[in-house]
From TrEMBL:
Family, per entry: Belongs to the Prp family.
Keywords: Hydrolase, Protease, Ribosome biogenesis, Thiol protease
ATP-binding is among the record's keywords: no
Name the UniProt record assigns to this protein: Ribosomal processing cysteine protease Prp
Domain of life where this protein originates: Bacteria
NCBIfam families: PRK14553.1-6 (NF011126)
One of the GO biological process terms: proteolysis
Recorded GO MF terms: cysteine-type peptidase activity
CDD domains: Prp-like
Pfam entry (one): Peptidase_Prp
Entry keyword annotation includes Disulfide bond: no
Length: 109
């Protein structure tokens, strides 16, 4: 199962952690895993490209793990843009979870 933890402070997303494998299909054909990967990596790439900073990124060597932490010293405008992108990511992940809740769970921390 894929576990998604959204980290928040005072309502704002400060980062997220995704771990595990959906195992909803054979290796290389797991649509849930592919969807979660595409949404999460797309959001991180959008933050880097559109907000002009690189968050702290930790990845598992063989996949199945991604942790992102935003810097605390972002100016208000950049922080707001990053929040919009990450909130959009969460909405997309929640949509996947609604259809495939036996393969993934999202929690707030």
């Amino acid at each position: 199962m894929i576990q998604v933890s959204m980290f928040r402070s005072q309502g704002d997303i400060t980062g997220f952690e995704i771990s595990g494998h959906a195992e909803s299909g054979p290796y290389g054909h797991d649509l849930v895993c592919a969807a979660v990967s595409a949404v999460s990596f797309g959001a991180v790439n959008a933050v880097i490209s559109l907000c002009g900073f690189e968050p702290d990124v930790e990845q598992g060597g063989e996949g199945g793990y991604l942790k992102i932490t935003l810097p605390e010293d972002l100016d208000e405008f950049v922080h707001s843009k990053a929040q919009t992108l990450l909130e959009g990511m969460q909405v997309s992940l929640e949509t996947i979870e609604q259809e495939y809740d036996q393969y993934m769970k999202i929690s707030q921390r």
